[in-house]
Amino acid sequence: MTKNNLLKSLINFNAAETSCKNVSADYDLVINSLDCLEDCYFSIVDATGKIIFVSKDFEKIDGYKISDILGKNVLDVYKLGKQNSVHVRSIAEKKVLKNTKLRYTSASGQPVDLVMDIYPVFSGREVIGSFAISRDTSKIQALTDKVFQLQKALYNQLQRTNNNGTQFCFDDIIGSGEAMQSVINTAKKMACSESRIMILGETGTGKELFAQSIHNNSSRAKEPFIAVNCSAIPDTLLESILFGTNKGAFTGAEDKAGLFEEAKNGTLFLDELNSMSIVLQSKLLRALETNRIRRVGGNKEIPVNPRIISAMNIDPKEAIETEKLRSDFYYRLAVITLECPPLRNRKEDIITLSWFYINKYNKILGRKINEISEEVIQILENYNWPGNVRELSHCIEHAMNIVDPTDTSLLVQHLPAFLQDKILKNNILPITVPKINDYKQIMLQVEKDLLTQALKRNTGNINQTAKELNLSRQCLYYKLKRLDIDIQHEIYIE
Ligand SMILES: Nc1ncnc2c1ncn2[C@@H]1O[C@H](COP(=O)(O)OP(=O)(O)OP(=O)(O)O)[C@@H](O)[C@H]1O
After folding, report:
1. Which fold has domain 163-339?
2. How far is ligand 1, taken at its centre, from the CA of residue 211, in Å?
3. How many other β-carbons are positioned within 10 Å of the β-carbon of residue 377?
4. What is the DSSP string of 371-415?
5. Pocket of ligand 1 (CB under 6 A)
């Protein structure tokens, strides 16, 4: 049976079914127009299983050349038993097989996921062949797999979050340098005690990460961990959030437990404690002294038992001196203190952290970065990271969005513009203060760094440097001489 005869039967069969008798067509045109369908091919075999026709996309999907398989039997081409060939089954059973899913390896070794609809072709009562529409669902399958993986990761994360309100434990803290290891060891010891902890450190240094890890390493791990950011909530609300409310306290107030009660025997983490008003500090102090709270509008004292971990991102001494913080309140909470060092003081961890975030975004964004250029390493290690690990993570996230999916190296042009600008123009001031206590010597070093960098920016040009610093030429010369700065030195002519 020729292809056209088979097609004619096929169309006549359908025409009979649809009572549309006068069908005439250019069969090749009809069949080839199916090629406009993406990731899909059309195939016809005769009653013996011999392949009579396949449309163009077949080569792309199956990896065979059409000319190599035409005229051959499907069972031989795919090395299948009769039961495993859907074409042969459809002919033998005289049945339409819809939505048949197949997974196999193509001639070029790629895994292929196909969904096939196979129709037997009749001439009268006799089956004279079958035709199939095969849709390549490999891409959709890969996407579905990815969605499934992401869902699973999210579910795991939520499970951890839902268990006790935390996401992190000590294993999640990155930092193999001496400074971080020492903080981790201290924090692990603190986890074994019941004393109140004050965690100090600049923004983004990992204070909450430590608070959660301590909770998860403590005997209270199965109880809730509840965090409240004192700077994010207006003072009047913060009181009712912490202590709860009793009905009638103010319009709309209901009987509601506060966070002290909700934390039960777990941990209550008071973040940015320094933002709390002095009035609320006094009320809280009373609760801390008695381990009892009174709901807003209530008159009953309720015993409470969470362990309190607090955090501050400013110097407590300064806050006490400027009367933003009550000293008795501070010392009630800072029974033991933990200091999270800023990133610029533990440069040895910067690249390890960068790799952590690169690998994270390689997975999330489907990137392939496996190298950080020397220049980028220099930049990352020399920037002073005022936003600490949070800022570094955002910087890498930015870079990973900019790299092309085929890039394997993280380069300067991928970094956020402010980092490229500042560093490439030598416009930042990583002032290297010597570890000495002599104020005069420190100031001399600071002045020297400042002038050296201004000279670098102006490629050693005295007039321009003096203008930028708003100094006279003579004054600049005098300072350079006093600080022993050699203006002929090649570093200024970069
Ligand atoms: N050592 C570290 N290892 C891994 N991730 C870290 C580390 N330090 C901080 N991070 C990450 O940096 C981000 C900021 O950390 P965290 O919120 O704990 O900082 P913080 O000091 O509490 O900041 P803030 O004072 O602004 O509340 C988080 O995503 C955290 O997971």
Report:
1. Rossmann fold (3.40.50)
2. 10
3. 14
4. EE-HHHHHHHHHS--TTHHHHHHHHHHHHHHHS-TT--EE-GGGS
5. 173-175, 201, 203-209, 271, 313, 389-390, 393
- 188 SS3 class: helix
Question: In angstroms, what is the span from residue 203 Cα to ligand 1's centroid?
Answer: 8
Angstrom distances, CA of residue 100 to CA of 46, 61, 80, 90, 359: 20, 17, 16, 11, 38
What's the average model confidence in pLDDT over 375-394? Answer: 92
Pick among 3.40.50.300, 3.40.190.10, 3.30.450.20, 3.90.1150.10: CATH of 3-140: 3.30.450.20
> For the complex shown, is ipTM > 0.95?
yes
pLDDT, one tens digit per residue, over 9-64 is 555 544 444 333 444 445 566 666 665 667 888 889 999 999 988 888 888 888 88
Rounded CA separation 236/375 (Å): 50
User: Which of 26-30, 88-92, 386-390, 425-429 is predicted with the least confidence, judged by mean pLDDT?
Assistant: 425-429
Answer for the pair 375, 413: CB distance below 8 angstroms, yes or no.
no
179 phi and psi, to 5 degrees? Answer: -60, -50
Q: What is the DSSP string of 70-114?
A: TTSBHHHHTT--GGG-HHHHHHHHT--EEEEEEEEE-TTS-EEEE
Bigger pLDDT: 145 vs 175? 175
Mutate-to-test residue for ligand 1 from 209, 216, 315, 391, highest number of ligand atoms within 8 A of CB = 209
Find the largest Cα–Cα distance for the chain: 109
Cβ pair 104, 86 in contact under 8 A:
no
Are the CB atoms for 15 and 23 separated by under 8 Å? Answer: yes
- For the chain, helix (H) and strand (E) counts, in that order, are 21, 16
Alpha carbon separation from 109 to 59, 80, 81 (Å, rounded): 13, 17, 21
| DSSP annotation of 50 | B
Q: Could you identify the atom of ligand 1 that is nearest to the CA of residue 206?
A: 18
Domain 348-424: give its CATH code: 1.10.8.60
Sequence-separated (6 or more) residues with CB below 8 Å from residue 33: none
446: its two tokens: 């600071």
**From CA 390, how far away is CA 208, in angstroms rounded?**
12
State in Å: Cα 388 to ligand 1 middle: 8
